[in-house]
Amino acid sequence: MINPAFFLAPAALLLPLAVADAPTVASGEQLAPGAAEQAPGPLGASEERALSIYQEARTPAREGQVRIEQRVVVRIAPRPQASRQDLLAQLPRGEVATRLEERKMGKCVPIQRISGVGTSNDNRLILFMSDRRIVSAKLEKACKPEDFYSGFYVERNEDGLLCVDRDQLQSRAGAKCGVDTFRQLVAVPDE
Length: 191
Hints:
Helix content: 10-25%
Number of helices: 3
Oligomer: single chain
Shape: rod-shaped
Structural class: alpha+beta
Number of strands: 10
Strand content: 25-35%
């Protein structure tokens, strides 16, 4: 003979699903006719959060305009005294060169090649370049080179050059000056 539990087991497995779908009735309330076919009761907090995340994901993203500006400021620091003397010591030694002569050069120098700066007694800054050149930068008339004893800042342009009548040097003390001319300093023997 067949055991009746064999037929009742599938119905017992489906019973929790039927109870979960049934509407809940508080004590003293009566279930309206056809309420069993209506939507289930209020959602819990976790279900509401899941539903809001789903709805947010379905809405298209709002697009806006973004403007990115970039500004690069380069700081040129003074070289230590010892390294300046080393730079002058590496000049070619034939006869002893006792003076430096200024020679014309272009209107721009590459900012990345400036490895240090020093001041002069007259209205000039001395730029020490990484390729062993020494360049004199004559400042505008109203500027004092003493303001630049601790170096200067310069805003880097797209071309990466520091040019005459275009760029402004800003000292760490706040003074702003332009460059009138660049001259290369070359050691020449005394005649």
